[in-house]
Write a structure and sequence with these properties.
single chain, globular, mainly alpha
């Protein structure tokens, strides 16, 4: 049941990205170009998404437990460290350079052509590189 709910959520998310044109890099770059030919249409998408999320959270928090899990899984850390700041900066730079972020890129994966496939390969390479770096960094030093 959890897998079916995850699949359905992903399909709805992908349809939402497509209908809102957040999968169109030109539309996204136009939105990010606040000092040039700014395209405000994605601001309405963000306002709508934020409104739905605000209402959804209010409804969910009324429940004692989630529908498909034993309990809620909430983040426990509230601090902003260098890893979070650096990751957010890299995400923003990537989004601003090519007009894609992971959700829309995955949505376009089969129909976006070589530029989207190159983006996905680079994104996966970045994730794998980070995981390898983090494992090496967190290993205790060898003693002799």
């Amino acid at each position: 049941m959890k897998s079916l709910a995850a699949l359905l959520s992903g399909v709805i998310f992908g349809l939402g990205l497509t209908l809102s044109q957040m999968v169109d890099p030109a539309r996204v770059l136009g939105f990010l170009d606040v000092l040039g030919a700014w395209d405000p249409t994605l601001a309405f998408v963000m306002i709508g998404a934020t409104s739905v999320t605000f209402i959804g959270y209010r409804l969910v928090w009324r429940r004692e437990t989630p529908v498909l899990a034993a309990g809620f899984q909430l983040p426990v850390r509230r601090d902003v460290d260098w890893r979070l700041a650096a990751g957010a900066g890299l995400f923003g730079m990537g989004w601003g350079l090519v007009g894609l972020c992971p959700g829309p890129a995955i949505t376009l994966g089969l129909v976006g052509g070589p530029p989207v496939l190159l983006f996905l390969i680079a994104m996966i390479g970045g994730v794998v590189s980070y995981e390898l770096f983090d494992r090496i960094r967190s290993k205790p030093p060898m003693t002799s």
